Amino acid sequence: MRRKTQxxxxxxxxxxxxxxxxxxxxxVLTLSKEGNKDIYSYHLKxxxxxxxxxxxxxxxxASFSNxxxxxxxxxxxxxxxxxxxxxxKTGKITRATFAGSYNxxxxxxxxxxxxxxxxxxxxxxxxxxxxxxxxDLMVMxxxxxxxxxxxxxxxxxxxxxTNKDDSGVLSVVSILGLQTFELASKAGEVxxxxxxxxxx
Length: 200
Known about the structure:
Elements: E1 15-20, E2 26-31, E3 38-43, E4 48-51, E5 59-64, E6 70-75, E7 82-87, E8 93-95, E9 103-108, E10 114-121, E11 124-131, E12 137-139, E13 147-151, E14 157-164, E15 167-174, E16 180-183
């Protein structure tokens, strides 16, 4: 099977934090082409760039819900680092997190009812689960530096990267019971884990 590589256009300024739309036809990413970091969508086939946020604060780390109807992103528009949700059809943006002064790097659960995110507790960064409807936030881990949570396809577990003895470690925490276990990995840094939607 031949793989086709498509080169994205050059964007002025900073281009970072890309994430795929569930249908694979577009991505969301952070661009500073207007001088400030905002969220944009880029449709690969149509080669069309659409601005999704416009604020004096920094908007970044966007990702789609599984139905493609919402994005979740990190912003300091309130003066704190918090998580926001935008409904793409209506354009409405709502703040999702209110517990604490730092919440970031959120992703939707497969059913779209929850978010996994990085939540700061004192000086530590831990994985937390947010109920979008009730705004209830549950801290799930007890480490000092957890990052990059991602749900398993069935929504029962969250994979994330953490740091242990100054080394990157890949870990998984269960939604029910909050059981945490480390995945075997070779020496080296572990960052930005993701979960395959397919299994053999």
